[in-house]
Each structure stands twice: as structure tokens, then as C-alpha cells.
Amino acid sequence: MINTSLVKSLLDNAESLPQSLLFSGERYSGRLSAAFSLISRLEKNEETERYWRSSDVAFIPERDLSLELDASYNLLLERTCTRTKDYFVKRVMSILLQYHRAFLKSGDKKKEKLFSDAADIDQMLYSFIETSSDDKKTITALASDIYTLTRRDEFMKCMKKKSILSAEEVRAFKEYAESGGANKYIIIENIENASEQSKNAMLKILEEPPRGVYFILISSNSSRIMSTILSRVRKIDFPQIRKEDLGSFLLSEFLESERYSSLSDFFYSKSVDEEERRKIEEYSAYFYSLFDSRIRIDNRRINEIFTLLEKVIGFSLFYSLIVKKLENDYSHKRITALKAKTVLNILTVSDQNSSVYSQSRKASLEGALRKIRCL
């Protein structure tokens, strides 16, 4: 686990923690794992921490879950053992937890079918968990079935929406929270990107959360969270894993002896093959250069880029590299803070248009590029 000493301190004081928490830090700093470790301690159920499997947890993510699902599946096939098996279960569960019963609206036949599929996948996961890691043939066969059902576009994108947290979802989990019974845990990622209406509705719940209901907010940019929300949560900062600790972490968690520059680099390498990665890196550098309107666009090359980026994982890596280049230029004062923020907003809207509204990568990126070149 990343940030083990921080998590240990958190768990040692679990019973005295408030019901509303904010885990702040960059991606891959262990915030989500820490949330499940804490829930496991409060539930007194070790399986919650090991498998992230609990009917009392609802997760509203913003991250691209397909990347880690693909990486976990490929890791399992590469080296089948208890660690990779458990990691695969967690990645599937992070997707299934979006299909919590609190969010099921009767009358929506399409969603009802997908919620039913989620229940079927959960049952398959139970069989997968019960199967010994030594039975590699059965493990890989079950994993293949689970992965195929989970990785479908309609299943991965069903819960996507324009805002990370809709007002409808706030109402849904408010009703769920007030229904009584066992403790309930609601994990919300990047609430700073929610609509104003949703944030205000959320604020009212955080002011006085129902008894036995815990909210864990996970944020990559807590400085953008409303001050009124910040005043109602206990903030815990998660530092990024140090480069000198990365090798030992990968070895202990994934039995990985190769060296990587970051955890994101590790996950991307397990999700796409080397040749595709090289192309994406090359194309991202070229696309980023086109932000300068003085550079002429090569239509043939641009079309090659769009063809490759129709792949979801390819786009995730491409987008990540573009943002990294933008942050690097800003840190070296090659671009102003205002322009960096404007470009990032344009790219974010482009990403939302393709993931939420099923707009093609080509259309969304062409629109983004036109706007950026006009800045």
C-alpha cells in the first residue's frame, strides 16, 4: 500500500474520525485504497479492504476506470498469483460499485438490464475469489468472462454524465443515507468538478450527515473545492509516491522488477503494447505542437492520430501526455497560468464530449484544436 504510515495513523484513529472526510492528493497516491482500508476497519470486515466488495459502499468516480481494468487483466494473465488476482477483483469492483442499488431508477429498462448485468458479474467474481490461484486454467477462464462482460462500452459508460455528481444522484444517495440500517459509505471523486447545483445540495448533507453514513471525498485539486464544503470535512493530504520508493512498491505489490518513471507509466505500459505506446507518444508531441497556430497542420498525420485515438486506452494515454506537456510548459514559465488553465478547460470539455455524449474522438479533438489555436 502507498503511504502506509499515513494510512496506519488513519486506521488507528478510525473510531474517532468525523463522518465527512477529504482525501486530497494526486492520482496514484493511495487515496482510494486508503478509503477502503478505513471502511474495512469501521465495518470490521477484512474482505472489504482485500476485495473492495461491500453492498454498503457506493462509489462515484471521475477517473477512466478502463485503464486500470485493462492493466489488471493483463497483469493477471502475465503472472497469475494471489496479488494479481486480488488486484483484478478490486478493479472490477471499482466499476460495479457505481451500480449501487441507490442509483437504480425504476422504469429505465436499459439501465435495469445493466444493473442486472452488474449483479451477474458480482456473482462471477464470488466464484473467481473462491477459486485457488494455483488453478490457473480456471482463474484465467473466469477472468476472461468477467473482463469481457465488464469491458463493454455500454457497461463502462452507462453511469457517465456531464457533471461528476448529478443533482439526481445527490437526491438518490440522500434517500439511501436516510433509510437507516447498517452503516453506509459514499465515496465521491473530484467533487470540485460537479455542477454548482450538485455542490450546494451536497453541502446541505455534509452539514449534518445522517447517523452511520460516512462520506469520503477524493480530490486531485482540493484548492478548487468550495470553502463551505472544505469547512465541513476533515482534510487528509496524500503525498505522491517517491520515485526512490516506486521500485520496491511495484515489486511488493505486483512482483514487477522492471523500472518505471511513475505508477501511471506502469499502468499504461500494462494496458497498451510497446509499439502503440511509441506511436501515442509521438502523436501527442505533434498534436501539442499544433497548439501554436504558426505551425501548419499536416492533415494526413492528423487523420492517423484520430484513427489510433478511437481506442479508449490510446486516448487516455494521449490525453495524459498532453496534460503533462502543458504542466511542464507552465512550470518552466513557457506558458501563462491563464493560457494553461484555458487550454486545460478546452481539453477537459473535449474529453467529456467524447465520453459522456459518445462524440467521436476526431470531432471532439478537432473542435478543441480549433479553439486552442485561436487563443
Characterization of the model:
It holds the Pfam family DNA_pol3_delta2. This protein has 2 domains: 4-237, Rossmann fold (3-Layer(aba) Sandwich), CATH 3.40.50; 274-373. The chain has helices at residues 4-12, 31-43, 46-51, 65-78, 82-96, 109-130, 136-150, 153-157, 167-177, 196-207, 227-230, 243-254, 263-271, 274-289, 299-309, 312-331, 337-356, 361-373, and strands spanning 20-24, 57-60, 184-189, 213-219, 234-237. The N and C termini lie far apart (43 Å). A 5-stranded parallel β-sheet has the order 2-3-4-1-5, with helices on one face. The mean pLDDT is 85. Helix 17 (337-356) runs antiparallel to helix 18 (361-373). Helices cover 61% and strands 7% of the residues. By secondary structure, it is an alpha/beta fold.
Strand content: 5-15%
Largest sheet: 5 strands, parallel
- Estimated helix fraction: 55-70%
Runs in which pLDDT lies below 50 for 5 or more consecutive residues are none
What does the overall shape look like? globular
CATH homolog superfamily of the largest domain: P-loop containing nucleotide triphosphate hydrolases
Q: How far apart are the first and last residues' alpha carbons, in Å? A: 43 Å
CATH class identity of the largest domain: Alpha Beta
The strand line-up of the biggest sheet is: 2-3-4-1-5
Task: Summarize, please.
The protein is of the alpha/beta class and 375 residues long. It has helices spanning 4-12, 31-43, 46-51, 65-78, 82-96, 109-130, 136-150, 153-157, 167-177, 196-207, 227-230, 243-254, 263-271, 274-289, 299-309, 312-331, 337-356, 361-373; strands spanning 20-24, 57-60, 184-189, 213-219, 234-237. It folds into 2 domains: 4-237, P-loop containing nucleotide triphosphate hydrolases (Rossmann fold, 3-Layer(aba) Sandwich), CATH 3.40.50; 274-373.
